[in-house]
Amino acid sequence: MCGIVGYVGSRDSIEVLLEGLARLEYRGYDSAGVAVVADGSIDMRKRGGKLSVLRESLDADVLPESGTGVGHTRWATHGGPTDENAHPHLGDDGKLALIHNGIIENFGELRAELESAGEAFESETDTEAAALMLGRIYRETGDLTLAMRRLVARLEGQFTLLATHADHPQLVVGADHNSPLLIGFGEGENFLGSDVNAFVKYTKKAEALGNNQIVTITPDSVNVTDFDGNVVTDNKTFEISWDAAASEKGGWSSFMAKEISEGPEAVENTVRSRIKDGLVRLDESEMFSADVLSQIDRIVIVACGTASYSAMVGKYAIETWTKLPVEVELAHEFRYREPAVTQNTLVISISQSGETMDTKMAVQYAKQLGARTLAICNTQGSTIPRESDAVLYLHAGPEVAVASTKAYLAQVVGQFLFGLHLAEVLGTMSDGDIREITDALLALPEQLRQTLETGKEVRELAHWMSDTRSVLFLGRHVGYPVALEGALKLKEISYIHAEGFAGGELKHGPIALIEPGQVVFVVVPSSRTQPTMHSKIVSNIQEIKARGARIIAVAEEGDAAVMPYADVVLRYGTTNPMLAGVLAVVPLHLFALELATAKGLDVDQPRNLAKSVTVE
Ligand code: AGP
What we know:
This protein has about 625 residues and is α/β, with parallel strands linked by helices. It has 19 helices and 26 strands. Strands 3-2-4-1-10-9-11-14 form an eight-stranded antiparallel beta sheet, covered by helices on one side. A six-stranded antiparallel beta sheet has the order 5-6-7-8-12-13.
């Protein structure tokens, strides 16, 4: 959950590290620090609080110029977000600096061993045990790469580590175990980072380290070995497909606002190049063959948070189109039970970051159980696609705000593409039926643009509601996961109580929550294409209205039936019923953004959260 950056070259490393940390801050923003190697010593600065606090300190009191350094932005696990607990941590009497992402599970044991050997700890972190241990091993070997190899043999848990030493003014060593680390290749300079954001401003050429590998970078060389010291040459280098500007805020008030506005493009870029002559054509080099696909008899989709709600929307469509049973399971629940999975089960993982530990573990578990695995993922070079048998990349572009918005849209349409492809292979849909859906898919970007125009109305609503303490969300069919997503967004960034329910569940309990003035968002299915469900939800609306609720209906254009009961109606465009979950979510994303803004909260960096949850 932390962000890591390392640099060797001829630029001022502080500038490179701060630039990288600013782009990685979404991974953790409790505290930050940098260390550089200059004039035969390590100079370090670290501060609790956001990166801006570190910046101010560095502006007030500059560190010496240096071409070698490491930087870290933290999401605290062991020890609170204080100056002492911030990374880097020092070893070898202050001559070595180490930063870490992950958790060292046996740190208590290591700490006891180090303390009895006379080492003094300055922090409560697990990381400091690794730094002190690395320092001791280094003293025996004088070789930082070898010392790192010996250190990782002593560590349990999951980690990315970067270290630099005063004896080696142009060298950074990294190691990864179940935690991401990427190399950025430059001319006369090289970079390391938790993801490509760390160095995209300087180079587009990247490579992800495989699991259990060690990398040593100097300005002119990059050497990768496994934990046993065997040279690794088969990691795949790739070109970063977006520009540094794509992960900048531009003129927007927040990344979340910018990313909501990029929803139409995210859908367009994911869909357009994959539809040829009205049918879905997926890249064969990355996708399963038709032979393999025709053996699939069941699909399980694993994901967490917003990605899991996108999966619930996907399930309705894939099951309808392919006639295969589709289940959605939270990745962390799937991982710790005994699911009935065979070699004919396809386990699809959905992840924006491709690094969510729970989802990654579920994929590994599915493979162990013999299932085939497909990753639907937005981040190139990330771990989950690399560990899966096949991959469908989304093209939403980088998503920086902790609250996922445009990636949700891309995740849903990514599943639609796969569902239609599979339906064609299995022969469960005619070409004509597929074309009807692909036409609707191609129309989505423009419809999304129109839905975004509800922004002003939603802003007024949010201002009116800025003191509201609880909001309920109700939906049926694909509107149900949309309701769950609306509630999650509100919890995440507005810190108010919010719950999503299936409309049919109302009388089984949640209606007891309704009291006069309670605000309820109701996601209304189409009266044209889903008349029965539509009339059921109109009954739900009447029931809660009768008990004094204030109704905000999210309804299809032209739906007049909700008007007499709703206090406010927000509209989405007419589409296929399976696709409505793409359009109807937009007013809810906008509402969460506007309410948090009206409450004066930091929408991009909500408390206690980080963008990529890379620990279990
Ligand atoms: C979304 O707003 C959340 N921040 C969170 O639920 C997120 O969707 C979840 O952690 C999964 O992340 P992933 O898509 O990167 O795997």
